[in-house]
Amino acid sequence: MKILVVGGGGREHAIVRKLKENPRVETIYCAPGNGGISADAVCVPIKAPDLEGMAQFARQEGIDFAVVTPDDPLVLGMVDALNAQGIATFGPNRAAARIEGSKVFAKDLMKKYGIPTADYQVFSDPGEALDYIRAQGRYPAVIKADGLALGKGVLIAQSEQEAADALHTIMEEKAFGASGNRVVVEEFLTGPEVSLLCFCDGRTIVPMVPAMDHKRALDGDQGLNTGGMGVVAPNLCYTPQVAEACMEQILKPTVAAMQAEGCPFTGCLFFGLMITPQGPKVIEYNCRFGDPETQAVLPLLESDLLEIMLAVWDRRLDQVPVRFSRRHAACVVMASGGYPQHYETGKQIFGLDAQGQRPDAVIYHAGTRREGDSFYTAGGRVLGVTCLGGSPEEALANAYRAVGEVSFEGAHYRRDIGARNRRP
Ligand code: AMP
Ligand code: GLY
């Protein structure tokens, strides 16, 4: 089979490497891919949002199956464009991708179908939003741009002034473009967060190993929000009791709700959950694999990823095995100094072999460029270094040992990944 993976980060590298394990796979193309991915797939210089370019390439190249993972092409409708060319796909179509593409859609869905989430109101006028926040008088107040905003559209205001500033940034300055035409103002929730990625074929939903992301740039959850600085899996806060409650109150009702709305979800449905004192609630839905969650979750998958994805396409997910190892995984992200703000690129990376790998870890490339047998930094997040172990501590020790052997000028990584991963 000829497979196309759309995207070019650490998540796509993890997916490519897992798909390669299937002996039916002849060639994997990755668009646009990156330096490290080029050791595992044929990289094609088509940018992810280029729907028509991608569909045309897939048809000309005779692609048998396309996996679309980044949020923007999914929300724009790349799956629809590929399907229109007769290409089988993994990922939601445009209608189903609204579950991530519009927070108003997601919140209204949860309210209509009784799925637990933070209380909220929707506003298209900043003055009315501020009046509401003032009348509530409860801080912090959570303000979210309706549409995609590169992961930066959630602002947590500690005071009326901060709320006014946030509304101004989103709705008047349009810092996130049309994504800020409407906002959701919601209740601030507390509790540990869990990233739960699930395979879903529109009817059947199968959760993967629960993961714990680390969004802030610095140790102790300080500093700015990033795309994610590391992940451990399984997330020990997600006890069997919590899992059962989530399956009945959140996972199954979400699948049924999407069906009832006429847009059944197929692909990877990602639940951002908060385990609050009142029980688990949905913080957000994503219509795709998480990055870097995937870099810790997929190495634990023992079943064949391609067979699962093909079963999702054929709506027979209930008929394939989806088994995970009982081991533990840790992924530590190595970033360019300064990320998520200004950073330099083009720094040579030391400690990798000619394939961009190491014998003691799996190295997922997020932002690298390759020149012959050498690799150079080419993005904010550069590498995800993943190791497994028989315990959380062992997985982390293995990952940090490998991280210590890799270097580039200005490299930054958190030293406390997984430190909060405890059973309640
Ligand atoms: P997002 O960019 O949508 O992933 O959200 C960023 C982060 O904001 C989440 O991971 C949460 O930590 C936080 N957050 C979002 N909504 C709420 C809420 N209602 N209460 C507390 N924290 C929240
Ligand atoms: N790591 C969170 C996300 O992929 O949105």
Structural features, described:
29% of the residues lie in helices and 27% in strands. The chain has 424 residues and is of the alpha+beta class. It binds adenosine monophosphate and glycine. The site of glycine has 6 residues, from loops.
Which hetero compounds are present in the coordinates? Answer: adenosine monophosphate, glycine
What about the largest sheet?
5 strands, parallel
Shape: globular
Number of H- or I-type helical stretches: 12
Spans where pLDDT lies below 50 across 5 or more residues:
none
Question: Which key phrases capture this entry?
Answer:
424 residues, 5-stranded antiparallel beta sheet, 12 helices, manganese
Give a brief description:
This protein has 424 residues and is α+β, with helices and mostly antiparallel strands.
